[in-house]
Amino acid sequence: LAVIYRAQGNVKLAEILAAKVFASLQEKIGAEHSYTLSAGSSLASTWNELGRLKEAEELLDQLISVKVGKFGPEHPSTIETTAVLAAVYYNQKRFADAESLQTYILQVRERTLDSEHGFTWTSKLNLAAIYTQQHRIKEAEDIELQVVDFRKERYGLKHELTLTALSNLAMTFRSQKKWAEEEKALSQVVLGRIEVLGPEHPNTLTSIQALANNFLSQQLPQKAEPLLRKMVEARSRRSDYGPAHPSTLASRNSLAWTYFDQGKHVEAESMQLQTIAEGQKFLGESH
């Protein structure tokens, strides 16, 4: 059930359930049972998504230590949990540590699975994302283009794995100010995710925000405005965001500047006042 909640974008509900399952399994069958270790990895993944990175790292270190002793360092379960730790390092901006782990994971998967296995391609994509953050743009783009082509052929354009690869490629285009290429990739991602995940799924909303940012970078506020309006409305409605969530406030602020850039000063002022009012509710008046 926790997996379903995560797939639906309800990460907070997934975390509550995963924590209960992990605690229950520890008590009933022991901390080193394979079911317990799997539940722990799920909980750590959820913490990673929620930004509870220190807690995720500490739990993953414990799980990996047990799995290495129980299964060996190259067992698929051990490697899977190591991949979550690499993702935590990435979110902590510890890119050298993340690269070291992802390179190791890729080498193991190429040797034990196959160079064409789906997990191997996932490792390549993760490594490319790290390269982008390290400003190794050419290396990142080359890998991402390969992953996109592979996943399009194997899964089709509108599969979430393909859309994820396209989204990563768009980020690499953005780092090079390749606005037209980024716009084309993001447009495909937005349309695909609306169809596959729904218009208000967090991944869809993130893609819409990225496309709006692309239009703003191209000095096209008239194209960004309707996307940002959708963002504000959708995030205000969602229980895991709400009108005072930092992401909603950021979208409101961007929308206000979009109004201003088009000479819509009344709308801009109104939106900024709403943003300030909601921000004070969430952050306090002294923030």
From TrEMBL:
Gene3D superfamilies (UniProt xref): Tetratricopeptide repeat domain
Domain of life: Eukaryota
UniProt cross-references to SUPFAM superfamilies, sorted A to Z: TPR-like
InterPro entries in the record: NLR-like, TPR-like_helical_dom_sf
TM region positions: none
PANTHER family: AAA+ ATPASE DOMAIN-CONTAINING PROTEIN-RELATED (PTHR46082:SF6), ATP/GTP-BINDING PROTEIN-RELATED (PTHR46082)
Protein name: TPR-like protein
Organism: Mytilinidion resinicola
